[in-house]
Amino acid sequence: MLKPPAGAEPTRDQLERWDREIVWHAFTQMAEYEPLIIERAQGTTLVDIDGNEYLDGVASVWCNVHGHRHPRLDAAIREQLDRVAHVTSLGTSNPTTIKLAKRLTELAPEGLGHVFFSDDGATAVEVALKMALQYWRQRQDPRPDKTVYVALGDAYHGDTLGSVSVGGVERFHAMFQPLLFEVLRTPAPDFYRLPEGVTRENATQHYLRALEKLLAEQHQRIAALVVEPLVQAAAGMRMHPVGYVRGLRELTRRYDVLLIADEVAVGFGRTGKMFACEHEDVAPDFLCLAKGLSGGYMPVAATLTTDEIWQAFLGSYADSKTFFHGHTYGGNPLGCAVGLATLEVFDEERTLANLVPKIARLEQHLARIAEHPHVGDARQCGMIAGIELVADKQTREPFPWHEKHGHRVCEWARTQGVLVRPLGNVLVVMPPLSVSLDELDRICQAIEGGIVAVTEA
Q1: Are residues 387 and 417 in the same domain?
Q2: Shared-domain flag, residues 223 and 188
Q3: What is the rounded distance in angstroms from the CA atom of residue 426 to the CA atom of residue 406?
Q4: Domain end call among 320, 348, 376
């Protein structure tokens, strides 16, 4: 391969070739990959190297909150850069990191007074899993037999080995089964495909009864239950029935099992409140945060927990109760600076209050799209929506996954200047919270047009 002259910028063709042959993209079949290289962005708009503009319909995979190149967030990083870019969290700290930790404890559900920083959503969950296990071994009345976790069917909590173990998406995780630890499964609520005899009215009780049976039989060895509250995102935007998360909290307390709330995807305003747990007044034992924590700017994650769990790790050096876990860039000051600014913008721009008309507009679009003969379900929780394509609306028979109907709809939407990404045959609508009503209209209309074009073809 010829090298470009020293100091010369690579050509467009070189960038595309290197992107195909050198960069290994996540969740992408590289034999079929066609490069899309985004060079810059502003607000809700992404611009590729050819100058083509696209509305960011999935918030750069669910993390961008206030838009790209927000002046407050840009300034926060620049100001921190003038002080220090990185300070290790192994035995040292930084004022910015400390201030973000304090602010998170003020915003989080009651009782979550301690913060462990890491890099991304998977690591935030990994931290909670390890802390839970160590807690049961080190508390005043140890329960060393509590080593097993409960997770929902089709769950997704990240791609590290611990988070994959509690995950349940067969296509993602089956290959790695020999490396994973034992996890007990409870059925995942699915309003669109309810079991025979279960209705929307009794779904909450049905799924909670299944969980209670499991806990009653196995609680002596269960350390924690992990759940994405309200919405199982990567499972296909499955929405939980009202009262389900509240019931999880009550049952885990009754059976002495810790509750890990994975709000990596659903936190920071996505459901219409700052945290999904707030909708049902739930305070978990662990709250895992990432994605929107930095407004989509930097890899910042946090695991919040209670004073009871914190106390189990305190002692002398010789007691060896330390949490022997860490991430090189955990608590990075640049990331924490933009995280603080992100939370300030929520207040300054009244982000949550301004979501009300956007949520209503999205609901209107979904009601119309749901009438299409190949849309089986159009579901919504706040600013999160999933549109499920089916081969037969009456029988709910799905399209064969290898026919890539979801991907083809997204490819069509891209021709209309809208960038979205599916979960199989579920089309995801999850733009930055700063999206305007007009932009939201364009996103939904492009998806709708793609559904028509692909299913008619």
Answers
A1: yes
A2: yes
A3: 6
A4: 348
Give Cα separations from 402 to 267, 289, 390 (angstroms).
32, 33, 13
Q: How many domains does the chain have?
A: 2
Per residue of the chain (457 residues), give pLDDT as tens: 445 556 689 999 999 999 999 999 999 999 999 999 999 999 999 999 999 999 999 999 999 999 999 999 999 999 999 999 999 999 999 999 999 999 999 999 999 999 999 999 999 999 999 999 999 999 999 999 999 999 999 999 999 999 999 998 888 888 999 999 999 999 999 989 999 999 999 999 999 999 999 999 999 999 999 999 999 999 999 999 999 999 999 999 999 999 999 999 999 999 999 999 999 999 999 999 999 999 999 999 999 999 999 999 999 999 999 999 999 999 999 999 999 999 999 999 999 999 999 999 999 999 999 999 999 999 999 999 999 999 999 999 999 988 999 999 999 999 999 999 999 999 999 999 999 999 999 999 999 999 999 999 8
Question: Dihedral (C-alpha) 123, 124, 126, 127: value to the nearest 10 degrees?
Answer: 120
CB 338 within 8 A of CB 298: yes
Same domain, 281 and 329: yes
Domain carrying residue 425: 36-66+350-456
